[in-house]
Structure formats: C-alpha cells, structure tokens
Amino acid sequence: FGLLESGSVSAKNEVNIMAKNVADVIFGGISYWMLGYGFSFGEGPYTNSFCGIGKFFIDPDDSVMGEEFSRFVFQSSFATTATTIVSGAVAERMKYLAYIIFSFFNTFVFCFPAHWVWSKHGWLNKMGVVDVAGDGPVHLVGGATALITALMIKPRAKRFTPEDDHHMGSPTGALLGLFILWWGWLAFNCGSTYGISGGKWKIASRAAATTLMASSAGGVVGFAYSYIVNKKRFHIPQIINGVLAGLVSITATCAVTGVKESLVIGFVGGVLVMLSDSLLVKLHIDDPVSAVPVHGVGGVWGLLAAGLFTHKDTITQHFASRHGLIKGGDIYLLGVQALAVVSITAWTIVSSGIILQILDMTMGLRMTAEEEEIGADFVEHNIQQFLTALPQKCDHILVTSLHTRYNSDMMAAAISKYIGDNPAFNDTDDPVTQQTSTTAGSNTLFENSASNGRPVQSVSDGHQVKHRNKWKNRVRFSSIRIRASHHSTKGPMPNMSLGGLSKKDFLQRRFSDILSYSSRDTMASTHSDSGF
C-alpha cells in the first residue's frame, strides 16, 4: 500500500504518505493489542452479539498461546489495513499529527464489524454472513471512512480547476506497489482459512486461483476502459485500479466460489470501480488513489456477489452454510449480505465521523495553504530534496502567499481597522518596514483582524488566534529579513510620503513594495532557512 500510494501522489509528498503507513502499523497495532482484539474476539462473560469482552492487552498462557497469537498477528494486519486505505484518500493535505491520532482510534471502527462477521458470537455470523477475508470489516470500513474523510477535508488546492497540476510522482513505484500488494493479497485470502489441515489446504488453493482470476478480469477492464476513454492510451492509475477492483471484489467469497464465477465477479467489480471513480471526479470529491471506488464500491459489490455466487462449504462446513442465489440457493443469503453492507456502512460513517469531527475541532485536520504548497515532506519531516531541486519554488510560495493575504478581506479589514484605531498615524509611519514600528504595526494589523474580517482559510473559532499569530510572526520576520537584506545591498529602504494617496492606499502600496523586495532580494538567499 505504501509504495502504491507514494507513487500516486506528487514528489513533494511521497515520503509523508509512506510515513503515514508506518504510523498505521505502530499506533494502530498498539491500540489493537490494547483493546481492539478483545472487542473483536473476546469471550468473557459479558461478550454479546455486538462486541467481545475479554482478551484485552492480550498475553495468553501457554495452552492457547499459538492459536491466539497467530490470530492476533493476522487480524492486526487487517485492522491497520482498514486505516491505511484512508491515508490515500487524504494524501497531500492532512496534518501528520492529526493522522497519527486518527490511526490510533480508527482501529475501533474496524474491530466491532470484525466481531459481527468473524466471531461466533457476532450477530451477522449467527445469521450466516459470508465474508472469508474481509470485504466488510476491512475494505468497506476503509472505503466508507475514506469517503467521509475526503468530504470533510475537501479537495487539494487547485484540484478540479484549470490550474490543476497534480500528477503521479512515480508511476513505476506505484506499479511496484501493485505487484507486491497483488501477491500479498494471496496471503490474505489464502491465510483466512486459518490452516491446512482438515481440508483447509484445498479451499486455500481455491482461494488462490479465484483471487488471481478475478484480479485478471478486473485488469482487463482497466486496460479496456483506459484505451477507450483516453484515446488509445493506457493510463497507469486505471490499470492499477482495475486489478485492485478484482482483488477487492473476490475477497468475500474467494474460498467458496468457482473460477468461472470469479471471472464474472472481477469483471463486474472492474466496471463498477471505473464508473464510480469517474463519478467522484464529476462530484469534485478528491481521492488521489481512488480508495473510495476501489475499496468502498468494490467492498459493497464483493459482499453482494457472495450472496449470488457462493457455493455451500462442504469441506470445512465453516465458511458458507448455504448456496448463493445463482448457485441454486434462495434469496436469504443475498438479504444477509445486503444487511451487512448497510449496517457496516452506517456504523463506519457515524463512528469515524465522530472521531474526525473531534480531531478537526481540537487540532484541525488540514494543513495550511502554505504548507500544502510546499509539501508535507518538507513541512512534516524536514526533507528538503524537493525544494533544493527547485530553488525558486520557495520564492514563489512566499510571494504568492503574501499576495493572497494582502488581497484578502482579512487584510483589507485589518488595514482599515489599524488606521481607524490610530488617529495619531502620520505621513512618515511605516507599520511594516520601519524598525521602530515593524513589530507594533504588524501586531496591530493582525490582532485586529479576527473581528473585522474572515480568515482566508477556514479555521475553527478556537484556533483563529493561534492561526493568526502564526501568520503574523511569518510576516513580521519576513519584513525584518527584507529590510536587512535591502540595507546590506542598497542602503535603508526609503520613506515614502503619502504623495496624495489615501492612508489606506498608501499602506497597500507599501505592502506591494514589500512583495517586490521579497521576490527580488531576500528569499532567494533565505528559502532554505528554517525560519520560513
């Protein structure tokens, strides 16, 4: 997943997306060990159809150690995968610290559906639901969470505009990630039989064959769709999504269906994913790695397909107690599968939405516009290769950012407020460039901005002061640098008289001067400095 996602985002964010996958394993793994496994597979006296109770902070005794630890390790990979799916949907714009906290708590979104489906006490399991390897608890949970997160955090800057410049940073890396994920999927699907004895090796081999054929059928759709839509060109994202669509679609019924049926399941899954991906673009829902179509839509289809194409498990009598509708069964199994889709989707949207809303209200989910432009690799991890390779990038970023703030309603209101609250203001004052008034002037401008204008970027009320002060300090230090640089090369910056201008126009003219000095003199020599 990490390679596939990092190859699908721009070069300035590829390390960050890999680091998010690391966070999934670390923090999601810890929370799953602490409580998640117990909520999924606990068998204490208070265990019920909704959740397990017991086996928290799991450390079993020798008599059951092998079975419990093997299940824990296998299921923890499922738990962290459900979160990793989300990292792709919010790539290039979500704060890393917010994501770390989210990855810790998102485990609990997974563990309850896992109990419903796989525990003998779960209410869906008692009804006979078929989900061999996690279309519901893993992929549908991940896809639904990805959708609600993408809606809350909104599209990347410039996305869905004529200036859209978002491209895959490494198509080769993404394809390499697909290959590794492809073979890893065999381990997921075959390993979900939990053994080789008692005929389990037979259905494990069937799971391998159906997984390969379904992914191939989905891949055919990806190739064909790209060839038709892109005027005889084969776009890498659509090839990748076609293969993944087949893999997700077969996951629920991989061990209890036939090879011919798997081709149909993978093909239909590929078509649904291609169409839903196009729909998201039309709706302006930004999903850089197509996590919602692949895992959300693919997971829904995989669960419903199990209600149609499942063979009754006559080998282990564990994975399917009846035939699907097309294989001679009645509509009951399809109804159970549809109920699983509705219940898991509803649970995921509500529970993940609550977690995300709390994070957004307390610390904020999204990076600032300046941080997003620079890239998360530099902002979050101090990796400067991207900026070093493009030395003019930081100049452009700062000047563009200053222009945005300068032309904003917040800045206009701040200037008006400054003049209105300072009747002693005279022709020689310069609230930005004069040493005696740089700090006081810029402070006054920004301290008065909250009640007189709206912030450029949407920030919760509790964080307006922090956000304003952060930008205030950036402008103050930048103006000091500009003044110092100009002084060393050209002497003191000139004091301009009003020259017939209104005081507001005069201040705006002085801000324009600052921007021109910033672009020409200062930032070329300071863009790599930590102070920006």
TrEMBL record:
Xref: InterPro entries: Ammonium/urea_transptr (IPR029020), Ammonium_transpt (IPR001905), NH4_transpt_AmtB-like_dom (IPR024041), RhesusRHD (IPR002229)
Chief location of this protein within or outside the cell: membrane
Pfam families with a match to the protein in the record: Ammonium_transp
TM annotation in the entry: 96-116, 136-153, 174-197, 203-227, 239-258, 292-311, 331-359
GO biological process, alphabetically ordered: ammonium homeostasis
A GO MF term: ammonium channel activity
Family classification: Belongs to the ammonium transporter (TC 2.A.49) family. Rh subfamily. Belongs to the ammonia transporter channel (TC 1.A.11.2) family.
Protein name as annotated: Ammonium transporter
Organism per entry: Candidula unifasciata
Organism phylogeny: Eukaryota, Metazoa, Spiralia, Lophotrochozoa, Mollusca
